[in-house]
Every structure is written in C-alpha cells, then in structure tokens.
Amino acid sequence: MSHGSTKLNKNDISSEIDLHVNEVTVAYNNGHVALFDTTFDLGAGTICALVGVNGSGKSTLFKTIMGFLTPTRGSVTIGGKPVQVAQKQNMVAYIPQAEDVDWAFPVSVMDVVLMGRYGYMNFLRIPRATDLEIAIESLRRVNMLDYKERQIGELSGGQKKRVFLARALAQRGRIVLLDEPFSGVDVQTEAAIIELLRELRADEHLILVSTHDLGLVPSFCDQVVIINRTVLAAGPTHDTFTQENLARAFGGTLRDLRIDHTDAPDGTSNEFRVLSDDEEPLIFGHDGRLVDHWHPGIDEEESK
Amino acid sequence: MIELLLTPLHYEYMIKAIVVSGVIGGVCGLLSCFVTLKGWSLMGDALSHAIVPGVAVAYLVGLPFALGAFASGLLAAVVMGVVKSKTRIREDAVIGIVFTTFFAAGVLMISLFPSNISLKTIVLGNILGIADSDIIQMLAISAVALLVLVLKWKDLLLFAFDPNQAQSIGLNTTRLNLMLLILLAATAVAALQAVGAVLVIAMLVTPGATAYQLTDRFGRMMLLACGMGIVTSMLGAYISYFLNGSTGGCIVCLQTLVFLMAFFFAPKYGIVAARRKARRTTDALLISGDAHPVPALRGL
Ligand SMILES: Nc1ncnc2c1ncn2[C@@H]1O[C@H](COP(=O)(O)OP(=O)(O)O)[C@@H](O)[C@H]1O
Ligand SMILES: [Mg+2]
Known about the structure:
Chain A is α/β, with parallel strands linked by helices. Chain A is built from 11 helices and 14 strands. The complex binds adenosine-5'-diphosphate and magnesium ion. Adenosine-5'-diphosphate (ADP) binds near residues 30 and 59 of chain A.
C-alpha cells in the first residue's frame, strides 16, 4: 500500500496540469469534519478512480477541488496555481451529481453545452462561430446531436449525463472531474462514458471519477484513491486496488466470499476471495491482488 | 365611443401613470423570470414589505424615497442572513419574522409621524397622484436595472441554473447572488408607488410564471414576461381610470387573467393540451391492439 503522494506521469505537460491536494481538512458549517488531512497528487494522462463508501467525503473532496468549499487547513493547487486562477483559465471541467441541477429549467441541450463556452466568450456571452462549432462537435462526440433542441428535463438519466459530458468537452478543460457518473445511467451510456474518458486520457487529460461501483474501476482506471474521511490508499490500480485496502475502506458493506481450490490439479495454492458490492464481484488471488473482475464464466462457476 | 376611450389620454397625470406603469411592469417582468426559477418569491415579498420603514424615514427627513427604501431593504436582507446563520430556525420562518417586523415598524412610524406620504399610498400604491420627483427616481432605478439585466442576463441565468458551473468557469457567484438581490430590492422600490407594497410581489412573480408555461427557452421567457408586464401594466393603469378603482389592483388582476389563460391553454404545458395529449396517446395505444401500454406487461 502506498500512502500519500504518488505521481506517476512524468510527461512535460503534466507539470502544467497536475492536481495537488495537500493536507486538506474540510469542515461543514455544522462542525462536521468531512475530510481530514487528505493528500494526493495526480498528473496528466491519467484516469483516477475516487472510491469510498457513501458519506466518505467523495463529493466533499470534489467540491473542495472546485473551490465550492474552502478547506479549513491545507490547500489545493492545479498546475501550481490556486484553484480560482486555474478556473479562470478554463482548466477544470466538473460534471455534477445528477441531483444538483434543476431539470425543469427552461434551457435546451444546446444552451447547456454553450454554457461550457462562457469562459471564452465576451462579457455579453454571445457565442461566436467557433463556440457553436465546438458545442456541436462536443454533442456529436457524446452522440446527442439529434437532441440539441430538447429541453433538458425531457431526457433520460443517461442522456442527461451525456449532455453534461458534452459541456465539459466544450469547456476544453484539461482536468475533468466526474461525481458518480455511472449512477442511474444505462449500460450503453456507461460504455460510452468510459470510451470517452479513455480518449481524453490518450489526449493527456487528467480525469478524476468518483464511484462506489467497484466492479468498473479496474477496467478503465489506472490510478485509484481510496478515501474514508482521509486517504486510505492512493496509487496505481494494480498496487492500490487490493483486497486489503478495499476491506478497510468498505468493511462490512461488502460481501466477502472465500473460495478454496487447493485441490487444483497443478497443486498451486488457489485460494480466491470475492468481494462484492452486489453489482459486479471482484476476485482476488491469494496475494490479495486482483485476478479478474466481472466475468460471466466465473459467476456461473461460483454459483455451482 | 372613440372619444370616450381616448378621454384618459387627455389628462397628463394619466399619460404619466400609463408610461411609468409600463416601464416598471417591463422591468419587473424581466426580473420575475429569475424570481420564479430561483424560488425567490417569498424573498421578493419580504423585500417589498421591508422597504416601507425606509420610505417613511425618507419622507420624514426629506431624503429621496428610493434611498431610504433601498437602505432598509438591504438592511432587512442582512438581518435575515445573520439570523439564519445563528439559529436553527428554517429560512422561510426567518424571512417571515424579519419582514413583518420591518413592515410593522414602517406602518407604525407613518401612523405616528404623518408626512407627505400616506399609509394608503405605501400599502396600496397611488400611481395617479405621484410626484414628478418620485417619477424620476422610479425611472432612474428602472433604467439601471434594465441595463444590468440586459448586459448580465446570461451570467445570471447560469448562476440560477447551475451555480457550481458558474463558479467553475471563474464567475464570482457571491457577486452574482448579491446582484440579483439588489436588483430585486431596486425593482421592489420602483414598483412600490405604482401598485403598493402588498402587490409588488405579483408584478415580480406572475409574468415569469406565465411565460414559463409558454416556452422552454429562457430568452423567449424573458421577452414574453417583459411584454406581458408592459402591456398589462399600461392597460391596467388605463382601465383603472374608467373603473375609478385601484391601479395596482387593476394591473395585478389583468396579470392573473393572462396567467390563467396560460394555465389552461398553453400549447404544451397547459392543462387542456396535457389532457388532449394523454387522450391521444391512450387512443393510439388502444387502436394498436394492445390494451396494456407497457410492452413487457402485455399478455400478463
Ligand atoms: N452541507 C453539508 N453540511 C453538513 N454535513 C455535510 C454536508 N454535505 C455532506 N455532509 C456530510 O459530510 C460527509 C461526506 O459527504 P459526501 O462528501 O457527500 O460523501 P460521498 O459523496 O462520499 O457520499 C457525510 O457524512 C455527510 O453527511
Ligand atoms: Mg457524493
């Protein structure tokens, strides 16, 4: 387990857009300390999962990185600059949890995506031809161009998520924060979001995505930060996303099954543990590292 | 007949009343879009009552009424903020306590120290008997509010819709919030003498609520609400001449009439349209041969 600072990407560009969360403590007005002494580092070209149980402070951490909450101690810097400065340069795009938005608002899909371009427009916020082009292109990338005149409340959960993804794309932020993007979306949207995030990673973006859907994490995240009011573990998925760390973070909320196959023909120790959050089981070998994640074959074998 | 209809226009005070009402109605209409969407109608009502003691003091000491009104409106907003942050009382209760206190103090002051302004004027409005100096103040406030709204409506829209996004692109949301609050107080001040403290909130809610039923585009909503504010206010002032009744009452009743028409007959969100659509869809599903509209449940 690696604790605290981990920084893998040594690209030149990463120094420009790295995210540095340094000993951050956040308390709410009612005195509740939601985050304590939280420290980690991330560089460009990364998809990092932020995992933790409900109430572990994922949304709080996002809101702190976005500057909506001010840490009582510690600091967040983006490319060495304070958050507010980075935001003025449109470096950070944020995709909120679905319940944070008033869906009955009289705005169309295109209006929402154009809001991502406000930072580039003059003070009257009149879109130029480039802004319109970029908005259209962003909608096309998330496959929502046909819906551009729809009022945003008239979309399914997955479509709404895509629209906000398009807004983030239109904003051209090099750092993209997604709070629970997979909750309440259909399987196609889930796949489309993951595909898009991979493209952004290839394009040297830094992506931080919170989820409590553990099964998805190993399939597309190269880094993991596990939190429960502070960082329990942070680093590359292979080293960090271990059975021990997850058991510490999720404790009794995960189903823990032990499957012993020591009678295997080749005689090697073959003990498996399966951790499941009831969505997609994770399967760990005897070294506590991930063997495989969701896999129909294993599913069936286990049930025998 | 024509002659009869034109009589109000022979009087200078009527022409003034119609024009001033129209201007204020238009500005209130624009702002009402934000008030309805942001759920600030209680706040608007509170501010329009909380400005009363300021008006009373201003008339007593001979200051411009707008200055006093504005000061007491903002003072009330600050008091609400402080009380809310220091207690566990819910926000609407805090607003209720603070604005009634301000209003009561104003009413008491006016009744104890009679001045140029009567209690009736403040509570019910008196656009027909308004002094020129007051008209100038009302027009000046309206002009500034209009300018701010025209220049900043997109930022205010983003702030109202998604304050997090507004902040994440570097907009100052504290300032936008304050801007909206000040606009609200300012238009309440401007509308006070036109329709009276009690009815100001109608001007600040009804046009927006009406327009919201007619369109899914914020820009169009603002135009509709503004147009409706102008037309109903001018017409209300005009009609009140014949009825010999309260101008404020006339304007607000007209607005309610338009609201009700939209409520029933709006093309998409009106009650009639919704009924018709539901019936059509059901008929279509019945004709298609399957009694149950959910395919998965067919044959159960
Ligand atoms: N506005 C708030 N005021 C007080 N406590 C809050 C507030 N928002 C969240 N909390 C508390 O902070 C903790 C972390 O919440 P949150 O960051 O939303 O968790 P997560 O997103 O991981 O589910 C929870 O215990 C929650 O109850
Ligand atoms: Mg959350």
